[in-house]
Amino acid sequence: MSRQMSAEAGAAAGAVAGLAAPLRRLWRDWRSLSRSEFMGLMLLALGFGLIDLSALVDLGGYIDIGEDPHWLAALCRQLFLPVIVTLLMMLCVLPPLNRQPDHPQRLLRLALATLIGTLLTQLALRGLVGVLDWPSVDELLNAQKGKAKRPTSPTLGFLGQTLQIFILAMLAVGLIEWQRRRRRAEASLARLQHEQQQLARRALANRLAALQAQVEPQFLFDTLVEIEQAYAQGRPEAAPQMERLIHHLRVALPRLREPHVSPAHEAELLHSYLAVLAGRQQQALQFSHHCPESLRDTPLPPMLLLPLLQRALRKATPRLPRHCSFTLETLEDGRGLRLLLALDLPGLCGDDAELQALAERLRALVGGPAELRCRSSEDATLFTLELTS
After folding, report:
1. CA distances from 233 to 230, 237, 241, 289 (A)
2. For 216-388, which CATH superfamily applies?
3. Which residue ranges does the chain devote to CATH 3.30.565.10?
4. Terminal-residue alpha carbon distance, the chain
5. What is d(CA 148, CA 141) in angstroms, rounded to the nearest whole number?
6. Residues 6+ apart with CB under 8 A from 306
7. 251-260: pLDDT as tens digits
8. Which segments does the entry list as coiled coil (predicted)?
9. Distance between alpha carbon 275 and the CA centroid of its chain, in Å?
10. Does 212 score more than 50 pLDDT?
11. pLDDT mean across residues, the chain
């Protein structure tokens, strides 16, 4: 006996556990309805119930509303049955609404779910009305007027009500589907915009990182610290130095987005960098640029000579040249370019290994053959970079 009871208890527990998962899914489907969707459905159901409001008013003229309980039953049937229909319909329609939004047969699935929900709702309503024994408004009016109930075919009545509910349900489901598609599209657009912003931030970060690699982080930091101290002490050179640094960054930043620059742009970059250094040391520095008219539109890799200038100035620290020049000319055989960077300080070449490492970096930047040479005299240093085509 006890074994039989244990087996029955286990079977009951298994049945409850088997129902738990579908009930949880149904509850999640119900919770997926937004407040606006739920309120819209309820208003639609109540609006449908109020379609025959004139019949209710006519009924009030025949019976005493306060004494006849049939009027209240008819009112409940008129207003609450559409709400019950809506709630039962959602049990059938919400699962396909919440699943596989990109399925190619989604609209067909929604229509089929709506039709099945309509048929099941009709069967449930017939049983519910029979149990509650709620009269309809038409039945009470005919009874008060002494009219006999017109015989109708149960099949035609069932089909007519089914079609009526199906059309209204499809309108409601279509409205919900349209709103959800719009929300998905807006979410997708927001996600794409966010990804685009993230990519833009990464690209900007990469460009800034490249700029820092060219301009030197310590150079920027020291310059900003000096400008801050100058402002704090009220020194007049603070504002001009800030303008020089901003000008240098405005010149350097666009170069990171361009595959090629002109010789004039490259000269402007060198000049703006030297102007910031000269401002920090409060020293006059002259810069000159020489380029034949035939080479003014020659494309050059951006920031080609800035690493070379930075290396030379590190060798010269704490000295600073008083004059720097940049010259562009063609090779003797006409198959390449020669770039000359001259500074009026001696001993800036360094060892050959370091110079060759810099030459490798320049070759990678140029993307082709490049030869770097350095010659130092008693009062100057000349860097020669030859690019052959």
Report:
1. 5, 10, 14, 36
2. Histidine kinase-like ATPase, C-terminal domain (3.30.565.10)
3. 216-388
4. 100
5. 10
6. 214, 215, 269, 270, 273
7. 887 776 677 7
8. 175-214
9. 42
10. no
11. 77
